[in-house]
Design brief:
CATH superfamily of the largest domain: Bordetella uptake gene, domain 1
Strand content: 15-25%
CATH architecture of the largest domain: 3-Layer(aba) Sandwich
Shape: globular
Largest sheet: 5 strands, mixed
Strand order of the largest sheet: 7-6-8-5-9
Radius of gyration: 24 Å
CATH topology of the largest domain: D-Maltodextrin-Binding Protein, domain 2
Helix content: 40-55%
């Protein structure tokens, strides 16, 4: 039996624990309501100079003005976005670290190398919003002698010539998927060598220097080299031609069909972010996306401004994962 004195002590311990439990919850709510009280990290899983980095710097500046705290862009390339994605997925879901994924890092890489990717886009993250989309263009360096898509096809079927060197940004890239679709369409292996890069900026730099003959990238990243006549557009990868390249056919016109390969860029937070923080982030991002500063950068470079959030963004990510998994299964048979 316990003594009366012990019982009184035990009763005080239980009472004190109850008081603490009741008081901690309001503190947590107040902390979320006060967000942000310190700088926010905006992690870009690609090198500086690429589209995700360009968008990130505009968005970070505009978010900072609206949230009242510095938003710091941190470039963390490697493993087709997996290094940054894994790090952010393991971070505290408090709104102070965000990830800027795109179609390649969040869809293509996860489908192509699920074990290497090491994260689940739907389980490990909550979308803040998807904000731009665009089509990829297949380009050739002028020194390659390739001037049209038909000439590109002829080189791919010519095994007497050296393999065509094609730059990509890693596993599951749109250009890589397109080559797989092209091989299926042609019912033939293709004479090419894929050259992987950590991101768009280094890939375009090597393509413009002639170190690789062909590469797929967004129009804005290559437009300057195109204007100087260094790069030749061969094909728009998708269903529609680009207004900037009205004479360049889309892959669908050539009978090459597959999942929607439009490139999107977005912003996500680790799963479990407090609802109040998420709501404020989404509101601020929506304001930024529709601001003149962002629209000028995005639309001026040939991108379509969108704002997909919540269930709409989740549904798009889920659908693209399923479509690319079905494509991978089909191509592997």
């Amino acid at each position: 039996m316990f003594s009366p004195g012990f019982s009184r002590v035990a009763a005080w311990v239980v009472l004190l624990a109850g008081i603490l439990l009741v008081s901690v919850a309001p503190l947590r709510i107040q902390a979320a309501d006060a967000w942000p009280v310190r700088p926010i990290r905006y992690v870009v899983p690609w090198p500086a100079g690429g589209p995700s980095d360009v968008f990130g710097r505009v968005i970070a500046s505009e978010l900072s003005a609206r949230l009242g705290q510095p938003v710091i862009v941190e470039n963390r390339p490697g493993a087709t976005g997996a290094i940054a994605s894994q790090a952010v997925a393991r971070s505290a879901p408090d709104g102070y670290i965000l990830l800027a994924p795109n179609t390649v890092s969040f869809i293509g890489n996860v489908v192509a190398s699920p074990e290497t990717a090491g994260f689940d886009p739907l389980r490990d993250f909550t979308p803040v919003g998807l904000f731009v989309e665009s089509e990829l263009v297949l380009w050739a360096h002028r020194s390659s002698g390739i001037r049209t898509f038909e000439a590109f096809l002829a080189r791919l079927h010519d095994y007497r010539a050296p393999p065509v060197t094609l730059g990509t940004t890693g596993n599951g890239t749109v250009s890589g998927l397109f080559v797989d679709l092209l091989a299926e369409h042609e019912h033939s292996a293709l004479n090419l060598t894929r050259v992987p890069y950590k991101g768009t900026a280094p890939q375009v730099a090597d393509l413009a220097a002639g170190h690789v003959e062909v590469g797929g990238t967004d129009y804005p990243s290559a437009s300057g080299h195109y204007a100087r006549g260094v790069l030749v557009p061969l094909l728009v990868i998708g269903k529609h031609r680009l207004p900037e390249l009205p004479d360049v056919p889309a892959s669908a016109e050539r009978g090459i069909h597959g999942p929607d390969l439009a490139l999107w860029n977005g912003l996500v937070a680790p799963a479990g972010i407090p609802p109040t923080v998420l709501a404020r982030l989404r509101s601020a991002l929506e304001q930024v996306v529709h601001s003149p500063a962002f629209r000028k950068v995005a639309e001026g470079q040939g991108n379509r401004v969108i704002f997909q959030t919540g269930e709409q963004a989740i549904a798009r990510i889920r659908q693209e994962l399923e479509e690319q998994r079905r494509l991978q299964a089909r191509l592997s048979n």
